[in-house]
Amino acid sequence: MLGDFFNDLAPQSRRRRFHSGVREVPQSWLDQFTHPDEDGELALLALASQAGATVCVGEARYAWFDDAPQQREFALVIADAWQGFGIGSRLLCELTCDAEDRGVETLYGDVLRDNLPLLGLAQRLGYRLLHHPTDATLLRVARALNGPRQQISVPFSCCEPASRPRAAC
Question: What is the DSSP string of the chain?
Answer without folding.
Answer: -HHHHHHHS-HHHHHHHHSS--SS--HHHHHHHTS--TTT-EEEEEEEEETTEEEEEEEEEEEEETTEEEEEEEEEEE-GGGTTSSHHHHHHHHHHHHHHHTT-SEEEEEEETT-HHHHHHHHHTTPEEEE-SS-TTEEEEEEE-SSPPPP-----TTSPPPSS--S--
